[in-house]
Amino acid sequence: MLKCLRCGASCGDDEPIWRCPDCGGHLDHITEKLLSISPEEIKRGPLSMWRYSKTMPVRSPEKAVTMGEGLTPLIPVELDGVKPLVKMDFLCPTGSYKDRGISVLVSRLRELGITSLIEDSSGNAGAAMAAYCTAGGLNCSVYVPDYTSAGKCVQIEAYGAELIRVPGTREDTTDAAMAAARETYYGSHNWSPWFVEGVKTFAYEIWEQLGWTAPDHLVLPLGQGSLVLGAYRALSELRDMGLIDHIPKIHGVQSANCAPLARAYESGLDVPENITKAETVAEGISSATPLRGAEVLEAVKRSRGSIVAVDEKPIVEGIFALASRGIYVEPTSAVVVPGISKLMESGAISKGETTVVFLSGSGLKATDKILELRRKIK
Ligand SMILES: [Zn+2]
After folding, report:
1. From ligand 1's centre to the CA of 8, what distance in Å?
2. What is the pLDDT averaged over residues 93-99?
3. Which residues cross the membrane (predicted)?
4. Which of 120, 133, 146, 371 is the most buried (most CB within 10 A)?
5. What is the predicted pLDDT for the residue at 376?
6. Which domains does the chain have, with CATH numbers?
7. From ligand 1's centre to the CA of 105, what distance in Å?
Protein backbone atom coordinates (compact mmCIF):
# COMPACT_ATOMS: atom_id res chain seq x y z
CA MET A 1 0.00 0.00 0.00
CA LEU A 2 1.10 3.58 -0.64
CA LYS A 3 0.23 6.29 1.84
CA CYS A 4 0.38 10.06 1.32
CA LEU A 5 2.57 11.76 3.89
CA ARG A 6 0.64 15.02 3.51
CA CYS A 7 -3.08 14.16 3.42
CA GLY A 8 -2.99 10.57 4.67
CA ALA A 9 -4.82 9.15 1.63
CA SER A 10 -3.88 5.57 0.82
CA CYS A 11 -3.85 3.75 -2.49
CA GLY A 12 -2.70 0.46 -3.95
CA ASP A 13 0.94 0.04 -4.93
CA ASP A 14 0.25 -1.61 -8.27
CA GLU A 15 0.06 1.65 -10.23
CA PRO A 16 3.22 3.51 -11.28
CA ILE A 17 2.22 6.75 -9.54
CA TRP A 18 4.94 8.85 -7.98
CA ARG A 19 2.87 11.29 -5.97
CA CYS A 20 -0.49 11.46 -4.23
CA PRO A 21 -3.29 11.63 -6.82
CA ASP A 22 -5.39 13.71 -4.37
CA CYS A 23 -2.99 16.37 -3.10
CA GLY A 24 0.36 15.90 -4.87
CA GLY A 25 2.11 14.93 -1.61
CA HIS A 26 4.84 12.36 -1.10
CA LEU A 27 3.94 8.72 -1.02
CA ASP A 28 5.41 6.27 1.42
CA HIS A 29 5.37 2.51 0.96
CA ILE A 30 3.65 0.79 3.88
CA THR A 31 4.13 -2.89 4.55
CA GLU A 32 0.74 -4.11 5.69
CA LYS A 33 1.64 -7.43 7.24
CA LEU A 34 4.40 -8.06 9.76
CA LEU A 35 7.60 -9.01 7.96
CA SER A 36 9.28 -12.27 8.75
CA ILE A 37 12.90 -13.18 8.08
CA SER A 38 15.47 -15.28 9.89
CA PRO A 39 19.29 -15.39 9.87
CA GLU A 40 19.20 -18.97 8.50
CA GLU A 41 17.04 -17.92 5.57
CA ILE A 42 19.19 -14.85 4.85
CA LYS A 43 22.39 -16.94 4.83
CA ARG A 44 20.88 -19.18 2.15
CA GLY A 45 19.98 -16.15 -0.03
CA PRO A 46 21.93 -14.49 -2.88
CA LEU A 47 25.29 -12.87 -2.12
CA SER A 48 23.88 -9.36 -2.62
CA MET A 49 21.34 -7.08 -0.93
CA TRP A 50 18.66 -9.26 -2.55
CA ARG A 51 19.17 -11.73 0.32
CA TYR A 52 16.75 -9.38 2.16
CA SER A 53 14.19 -9.44 -0.69
CA LYS A 54 11.43 -10.62 1.65
CA THR A 55 11.46 -7.13 3.14
CA MET A 56 11.16 -5.39 -0.26
CA PRO A 57 8.07 -4.41 -2.28
CA VAL A 58 9.24 -6.24 -5.43
CA ARG A 59 6.85 -9.01 -6.48
CA SER A 60 9.33 -11.23 -8.38
CA PRO A 61 12.81 -10.74 -6.88
CA GLU A 62 14.17 -13.51 -9.12
CA LYS A 63 13.54 -11.16 -12.08
CA ALA A 64 15.04 -8.08 -10.39
CA VAL A 65 17.36 -5.70 -12.22
CA THR A 66 20.48 -6.43 -10.20
CA MET A 67 24.24 -6.23 -10.59
CA GLY A 68 25.15 -7.79 -7.26
CA GLU A 69 24.84 -4.53 -5.28
CA GLY A 70 25.24 -4.59 -1.51
CA LEU A 71 27.16 -6.85 0.87
CA THR A 72 29.86 -4.17 1.05
CA PRO A 73 32.65 -4.59 3.62
CA LEU A 74 32.41 -3.31 7.20
CA ILE A 75 35.93 -2.65 8.45
CA PRO A 76 37.51 -0.97 11.51
CA VAL A 77 39.43 2.23 10.74
CA GLU A 78 41.29 4.47 13.19
CA LEU A 79 40.14 8.08 12.76
CA ASP A 80 41.18 10.95 14.98
CA GLY A 81 41.78 8.67 17.96
CA VAL A 82 38.49 6.79 17.60
CA LYS A 83 37.96 3.47 15.92
CA PRO A 84 34.60 3.30 14.17
CA LEU A 85 33.54 0.58 11.79
CA VAL A 86 33.33 1.87 8.25
CA LYS A 87 30.60 0.68 5.87
CA MET A 88 32.30 0.79 2.47
CA ASP A 89 29.20 1.41 0.37
CA PHE A 90 31.09 3.32 -2.31
CA LEU A 91 32.04 -0.17 -3.53
CA CYS A 92 28.61 -0.77 -5.08
CA PRO A 93 28.56 -1.38 -8.88
CA THR A 94 28.29 2.28 -10.01
CA GLY A 95 30.42 3.60 -7.14
CA SER A 96 27.70 4.75 -4.75
CA TYR A 97 25.09 3.40 -2.33
CA LYS A 98 22.34 4.73 -4.60
CA ASP A 99 22.54 1.41 -6.46
CA ARG A 100 20.61 -0.19 -3.61
CA GLY A 101 17.60 2.09 -3.97
CA ILE A 102 17.73 2.29 -7.75
CA SER A 103 17.90 -1.50 -8.12
CA VAL A 104 14.60 -1.82 -6.22
CA LEU A 105 13.04 1.24 -7.90
CA VAL A 106 13.85 0.10 -11.45
CA SER A 107 12.85 -3.51 -10.70
CA ARG A 108 9.47 -2.37 -9.38
CA LEU A 109 8.86 0.11 -12.23
CA ARG A 110 9.67 -2.57 -14.79
CA GLU A 111 7.14 -4.85 -13.10
CA LEU A 112 4.62 -2.03 -13.45
CA GLY A 113 5.28 -1.72 -17.18
CA ILE A 114 7.36 1.50 -17.26
CA THR A 115 9.71 1.56 -20.27
CA SER A 116 10.99 5.15 -20.22
CA LEU A 117 11.66 7.62 -17.41
CA ILE A 118 13.17 10.90 -16.33
CA GLU A 119 15.42 11.30 -13.28
CA ASP A 120 17.12 14.32 -11.74
CA SER A 121 20.15 14.02 -9.55
CA SER A 122 23.22 15.75 -8.22
CA GLY A 123 25.14 12.96 -9.97
CA ASN A 124 25.34 9.63 -8.14
CA ALA A 125 21.67 8.66 -8.35
CA GLY A 126 21.68 9.72 -11.99
CA ALA A 127 24.61 7.41 -12.70
CA ALA A 128 22.89 4.57 -10.85
CA MET A 129 19.61 5.22 -12.68
CA ALA A 130 21.39 5.28 -16.05
CA ALA A 131 23.15 1.99 -15.28
CA TYR A 132 20.14 0.08 -13.96
CA CYS A 133 17.83 1.37 -16.72
CA THR A 134 20.34 0.17 -19.29
CA ALA A 135 20.67 -3.19 -17.54
CA GLY A 136 16.89 -3.50 -17.29
CA GLY A 137 16.08 -2.35 -20.84
CA LEU A 138 14.47 0.99 -19.92
CA ASN A 139 15.13 4.36 -21.60
CA CYS A 140 16.37 7.04 -19.28
CA SER A 141 17.03 10.82 -19.34
CA VAL A 142 19.01 12.30 -16.46
CA TYR A 143 18.88 16.00 -15.51
CA VAL A 144 21.88 17.24 -13.50
CA PRO A 145 22.99 20.66 -12.21
CA ASP A 146 25.69 22.04 -14.50
CA TYR A 147 28.21 22.08 -11.60
CA THR A 148 28.11 18.25 -11.39
CA SER A 149 31.54 16.54 -11.49
CA ALA A 150 32.75 15.71 -15.00
CA GLY A 151 33.32 12.11 -13.85
CA LYS A 152 29.65 11.61 -12.98
CA CYS A 153 28.47 13.19 -16.26
CA VAL A 154 30.77 10.98 -18.33
CA GLN A 155 29.56 7.95 -16.39
CA ILE A 156 25.87 8.75 -17.01
CA GLU A 157 26.43 9.17 -20.74
CA ALA A 158 28.64 6.09 -20.97
CA TYR A 159 25.72 3.94 -19.76
CA GLY A 160 23.73 5.30 -22.69
CA ALA A 161 21.37 7.69 -20.90
CA GLU A 162 20.49 11.11 -22.25
CA LEU A 163 22.24 13.75 -20.08
CA ILE A 164 20.73 17.22 -19.65
CA ARG A 165 22.75 19.84 -17.75
CA VAL A 166 20.68 22.54 -16.07
CA PRO A 167 22.18 25.92 -15.08
CA GLY A 168 21.42 27.21 -11.58
CA THR A 169 20.73 25.35 -8.36
CA ARG A 170 19.92 21.69 -7.59
CA GLU A 171 16.31 22.83 -7.17
CA ASP A 172 16.29 24.37 -10.70
CA THR A 173 17.32 20.94 -11.99
CA THR A 174 14.33 19.30 -10.30
CA ASP A 175 11.97 21.92 -11.77
CA ALA A 176 13.33 21.29 -15.28
CA ALA A 177 12.99 17.50 -14.90
CA MET A 178 9.44 17.74 -13.54
CA ALA A 179 8.40 19.96 -16.44
CA ALA A 180 9.86 17.50 -18.95
CA ALA A 181 8.32 14.51 -17.15
CA ARG A 182 4.78 15.65 -18.03
CA GLU A 183 5.36 13.84 -21.34
CA THR A 184 6.83 10.65 -19.83
CA TYR A 185 7.31 9.08 -16.35
CA TYR A 186 9.00 10.93 -13.48
CA GLY A 187 11.20 8.25 -11.91
CA SER A 188 12.81 10.59 -9.36
CA HIS A 189 14.54 8.63 -6.60
CA ASN A 190 13.70 11.44 -4.18
CA TRP A 191 9.97 11.13 -4.89
CA SER A 192 9.73 7.38 -5.41
CA PRO A 193 8.17 5.35 -2.59
CA TRP A 194 10.38 2.40 -3.61
CA PHE A 195 13.87 3.94 -3.48
CA VAL A 196 14.19 3.90 0.31
CA GLU A 197 13.09 0.25 0.34
CA GLY A 198 16.38 -0.61 -1.35
CA VAL A 199 18.54 1.89 0.54
CA LYS A 200 17.40 0.37 3.85
CA THR A 201 19.25 -2.88 3.10
CA PHE A 202 22.55 -1.34 4.24
CA ALA A 203 21.24 -1.37 7.81
CA TYR A 204 20.15 -5.01 7.50
CA GLU A 205 23.67 -5.82 6.34
CA ILE A 206 25.30 -4.04 9.28
CA TRP A 207 23.06 -6.10 11.56
CA GLU A 208 24.19 -9.30 9.81
CA GLN A 209 27.86 -8.26 9.77
CA LEU A 210 27.77 -7.52 13.50
CA GLY A 211 26.61 -11.07 14.20
CA TRP A 212 22.86 -10.24 14.09
CA THR A 213 23.14 -7.35 16.53
CA ALA A 214 22.62 -3.60 16.19
CA PRO A 215 25.45 -1.08 16.73
CA ASP A 216 25.10 1.77 19.25
CA HIS A 217 25.44 4.56 16.66
CA LEU A 218 25.17 5.17 12.92
CA VAL A 219 26.86 8.26 11.44
CA LEU A 220 25.50 9.12 7.99
CA PRO A 221 26.03 11.87 5.39
CA LEU A 222 22.74 13.82 5.24
CA GLY A 223 21.25 15.73 2.30
CA GLN A 224 17.77 14.62 1.26
CA GLY A 225 17.93 12.02 4.01
CA SER A 226 17.41 8.69 2.25
CA LEU A 227 20.13 7.05 4.37
CA VAL A 228 18.49 8.22 7.61
CA LEU A 229 15.04 7.16 6.43
CA GLY A 230 16.34 3.83 5.11
CA ALA A 231 18.22 3.08 8.33
CA TYR A 232 15.26 3.95 10.51
CA ARG A 233 12.94 1.83 8.37
CA ALA A 234 15.18 -1.26 8.46
CA LEU A 235 15.89 -0.95 12.16
CA SER A 236 12.21 -0.47 13.00
CA GLU A 237 11.40 -3.57 10.95
CA LEU A 238 14.09 -5.56 12.77
CA ARG A 239 12.79 -4.36 16.13
CA ASP A 240 9.19 -5.19 15.20
CA MET A 241 10.28 -8.69 14.17
CA GLY A 242 11.99 -9.08 17.56
CA LEU A 243 15.43 -9.44 15.92
CA ILE A 244 17.08 -6.49 17.71
CA ASP A 245 16.40 -5.10 21.15
CA HIS A 246 17.23 -1.44 20.49
CA ILE A 247 17.35 1.06 17.64
CA PRO A 248 20.82 2.60 17.27
CA LYS A 249 21.14 6.36 17.58
CA ILE A 250 21.11 7.77 14.06
CA HIS A 251 23.32 10.84 13.52
CA GLY A 252 23.18 12.87 10.30
CA VAL A 253 26.09 15.01 9.12
CA GLN A 254 25.48 18.03 6.89
CA SER A 255 27.77 20.58 5.33
CA ALA A 256 27.49 23.84 7.33
CA ASN A 257 27.11 25.63 3.98
CA CYS A 258 23.84 23.79 3.38
CA ALA A 259 22.39 22.62 6.69
CA PRO A 260 18.61 23.09 6.81
CA LEU A 261 18.17 19.93 8.90
CA ALA A 262 21.06 20.56 11.31
CA ARG A 263 19.70 24.06 11.93
CA ALA A 264 16.20 22.72 12.49
CA TYR A 265 17.56 20.07 14.88
CA GLU A 266 19.47 22.71 16.88
CA SER A 267 16.40 24.94 17.11
CA GLY A 268 14.08 22.06 17.98
CA LEU A 269 11.97 22.57 14.83
CA ASP A 270 9.90 19.80 13.22
CA VAL A 271 10.52 21.00 9.65
CA PRO A 272 13.71 22.02 7.80
CA GLU A 273 14.80 25.61 8.33
CA ASN A 274 14.65 27.99 5.37
CA ILE A 275 18.23 28.66 4.39
CA THR A 276 20.25 30.31 1.67
CA LYS A 277 22.88 27.76 0.79
CA ALA A 278 26.50 28.48 -0.02
CA GLU A 279 28.69 26.33 -2.25
CA THR A 280 30.07 23.16 -0.68
CA VAL A 281 32.53 20.47 -1.77
CA ALA A 282 29.96 17.97 -0.49
CA GLU A 283 27.83 18.36 -3.64
CA GLY A 284 25.93 15.11 -3.07
CA ILE A 285 24.25 16.47 0.08
CA SER A 286 23.74 20.03 -1.09
CA SER A 287 19.95 19.97 -0.69
CA ALA A 288 18.51 23.26 0.59
CA THR A 289 14.92 22.00 0.72
CA PRO A 290 14.93 18.28 1.58
CA LEU A 291 11.62 16.87 0.35
CA ARG A 292 11.12 14.54 3.31
CA GLY A 293 12.78 16.80 5.86
CA ALA A 294 10.06 16.48 8.48
CA GLU A 295 10.24 12.69 8.33
CA VAL A 296 14.04 12.77 8.60
CA LEU A 297 13.87 15.00 11.69
CA GLU A 298 11.32 12.66 13.25
CA ALA A 299 13.39 9.54 12.53
CA VAL A 300 16.50 11.13 14.08
CA LYS A 301 14.51 12.22 17.12
CA ARG A 302 12.88 8.82 17.58
CA SER A 303 16.26 7.10 17.41
CA ARG A 304 17.57 9.61 20.03
CA GLY A 305 20.30 10.60 17.58
CA SER A 306 21.33 14.05 16.38
CA ILE A 307 22.28 16.18 13.38
CA VAL A 308 25.54 18.11 13.15
CA ALA A 309 26.96 20.48 10.55
CA VAL A 310 30.63 20.56 9.57
CA ASP A 311 32.77 23.22 7.86
CA GLU A 312 34.42 22.98 4.46
CA LYS A 313 38.05 22.79 5.61
CA PRO A 314 37.56 19.74 7.87
CA ILE A 315 35.55 18.03 5.09
CA VAL A 316 38.49 18.45 2.71
CA GLU A 317 40.91 17.23 5.41
CA GLY A 318 38.58 14.26 5.89
CA ILE A 319 39.02 13.21 2.25
CA PHE A 320 42.78 13.00 2.67
CA ALA A 321 42.59 11.47 6.16
CA LEU A 322 40.61 8.57 4.67
CA ALA A 323 42.89 8.40 1.62
CA SER A 324 45.90 8.10 3.94
CA ARG A 325 44.27 4.91 5.26
CA GLY A 326 43.76 3.58 1.73
CA ILE A 327 40.13 4.67 1.40
CA TYR A 328 39.37 6.93 -1.57
CA VAL A 329 35.95 8.54 -1.31
CA GLU A 330 34.24 11.55 -2.83
CA PRO A 331 34.09 14.81 -0.83
CA THR A 332 30.45 14.21 0.21
CA SER A 333 31.36 11.00 2.05
CA ALA A 334 34.19 12.72 3.91
CA VAL A 335 31.72 14.75 6.02
CA VAL A 336 31.55 11.78 8.39
CA VAL A 337 35.18 12.33 9.47
CA PRO A 338 34.66 15.76 11.09
CA GLY A 339 31.14 14.55 11.91
CA ILE A 340 32.34 11.76 14.19
CA SER A 341 34.92 14.09 15.83
CA LYS A 342 32.15 16.56 16.64
CA LEU A 343 29.91 13.84 18.04
CA MET A 344 32.76 12.57 20.25
CA GLU A 345 33.56 16.08 21.49
CA SER A 346 29.95 16.78 22.41
CA GLY A 347 29.68 13.44 24.23
CA ALA A 348 26.94 12.18 21.89
CA ILE A 349 29.21 9.20 21.17
CA SER A 350 31.51 7.72 23.81
CA LYS A 351 34.67 5.67 23.39
CA GLY A 352 33.95 1.97 23.50
CA GLU A 353 30.52 2.24 21.91
CA THR A 354 29.98 0.43 18.59
CA THR A 355 29.79 3.15 15.94
CA VAL A 356 29.35 2.63 12.21
CA VAL A 357 30.17 5.44 9.79
CA PHE A 358 28.89 5.27 6.24
CA LEU A 359 30.91 6.04 3.12
CA SER A 360 28.53 6.73 0.28
CA GLY A 361 30.45 7.47 -2.93
CA SER A 362 33.74 6.63 -4.62
CA GLY A 363 36.54 9.16 -5.01
CA LEU A 364 37.02 7.92 -8.57
CA LYS A 365 33.86 9.83 -9.50
CA ALA A 366 35.25 13.13 -8.28
CA THR A 367 38.87 13.00 -9.36
CA ASP A 368 38.62 16.43 -11.02
CA LYS A 369 37.33 18.01 -7.80
CA ILE A 370 39.82 16.17 -5.57
CA LEU A 371 42.68 17.31 -7.82
CA GLU A 372 41.50 20.90 -7.48
CA LEU A 373 41.32 20.56 -3.67
CA ARG A 374 44.81 19.06 -3.48
CA ARG A 375 46.21 21.97 -5.48
CA LYS A 376 44.54 24.44 -3.09
CA ILE A 377 46.02 22.69 -0.03
CA LYS A 378 49.58 22.61 -1.40
ZN1 LIG B 1 -2.23 13.36 -0.46
Report:
1. 6
2. 98
3. none
4. 120
5. 86
6. 1-30 (no CATH), 74-96+195-377 (3.40.50.1100), 98-186 (3.40.50.1100)
7. 21
